[in-house]
Amino acid sequence: MLIRLPGVGALYCPPLGREYPLGLREVPGSHTLVYINRGLGTTVLPLRLFCPPEVTLLTLRSETGN
Q1: Helix or strand run (H / E) with residue 28
Q2: What is the pLDDT of residues 32-49, one digit of tens each?
Q3: Does residue 22 or residue 55 have the better pLDDT?
């Protein structure tokens, strides 16, 4: 069940969901980047409110440009 209320955020989050809500984040104490999106699926209840499905396309490039 994905329900996000404007100004409040998600009503329920899985473990670490509040620490990494959405978007590109850096893991504290490292240079590791994590990208989190809303996803496509649902849980037991097929309910999405103020949280439309999302597909993300990431293009990875090396620092050297090769």
Answers
A1: none
A2: 988 888 777 666 767 777
A3: 55
